[in-house]
Design goal:
The chain has about 120 residues and is mainly β. It has strands spanning about 1-5, 10-15, 20-25, 35-40, 45-50, 60, 70-75, 80-85, 90-100, 110, 115-120. Strands 2, 4, 5, 6, 9, 10 and 11 form a seven-stranded mixed β-sheet that branches. A four-stranded antiparallel β-sheet has the order 1-3-8-7, with no helix packed on it. About 35% of the residues are buried.
């Protein structure tokens, strides 16, 4: 079992930056791929970014490529999502996920955090 706790969400203005953190506990963090999904009101949950266990492999949704950066610190059992040049359409609840392998579909991830709200005002 892996427990995930997100933090860092909040209300920002368009063009601002924000960094989300996800602290993991439980099984060995460094063995898990990590990622972020988001869900806006009235929309389906969508893939945002993912990172392999070593941190050398990263994947991004086209909508955030070039603006968001995912990273991890295995010593701290924490994964980060640095978000820059935020837009109103980035407004959503952001979920941290973990699993033994990477994937862009929500059903491929077994462990989910409770989510953190990000609101971008235009």
């Amino acid at each position: 079992q892996v427990q995930l706790v997100e933090s860092g969400g909040g209300l920002v203005q368009a063009g601002d930056s924000l960094r989300l953190s996800c602290a993991a506990s439980g099984r060995t963090f460094s063995r898990y791929a990590m990622g972020w999904f988001r869900q806006a009101p009235g929309k389906e949950r969508e893939f945002v970014a993912a990172i392999g266990w070593s941190g050398s492999s990263t994947y991004y949704a086209d909508s955030v490529k070039g603006r968001f950066t995912i990273s991890r610190d295995n010593a701290k059992s924490t994964v980060y999502l640095q978000m820059s040049t935020l837009k109103a359409e980035d407004t959503a609840v952001y979920y941290c996920v973990a699993d033994g392998r990477l994937g862009t579909k929500s059903g491929q991830w077994n462990y989910w955090g409770q989510g953190t709200q990000v609101t971008v005002s235009s």
